[in-house]
Write a sequence for this structure.
DNA sequence: TTGGTGACTAATC
DNA sequence: GGATTAGCCACCA
């Protein structure tokens, strides 16, 4: 493993998100060097291995909404974890506390 | 190779 | 503020 795959790069970026902060898929894509490939982020998160330490719940849409339909399992999990970190979530909307990415 | 697909985004109504 | 449309681009069968 000399060259990390894009998926791993994404996971690394997501793992670098500090607690209490959230970022949009587009932001993660830019951080990982994927440009506008925001859709790939969701796919990479869906390929997360078991036992990971990736706070995927800190990744939301650009408009500050959860990427899942309200009432779904993943949705409630994400909201629960965000609230646990001090992030306010109301009506499927997240209080956008984006952080400055330091390359 | 081709075509279908998506945890997206921005613009428009 | 919510719903719809079109654009985008890498991955997978």
């Amino acid at each position: 493993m000399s060259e990390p795959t894009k998926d791993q790069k994404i996971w690394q970026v997501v793992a670098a998100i500090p607690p209490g902060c959230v970022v949009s898929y587009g932001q993660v894509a830019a951080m990982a060097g994927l440009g506008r490939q925001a859709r790939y982020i969701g796919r990479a998160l869906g390929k997360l291995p078991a036992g990971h330490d990736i706070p995927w719940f800190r990744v939301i849409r650009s408009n500050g909404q959860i990427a899942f339909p309200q009432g779904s399992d993943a949705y409630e999990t994400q909201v629960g974890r965000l609230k646990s970190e001090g992030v306010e979530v109301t009506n499927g909307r997240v209080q956008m506390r984006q952080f400055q990415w330091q390359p």
Summary: DSSP finds four helices and four strands in chain A.
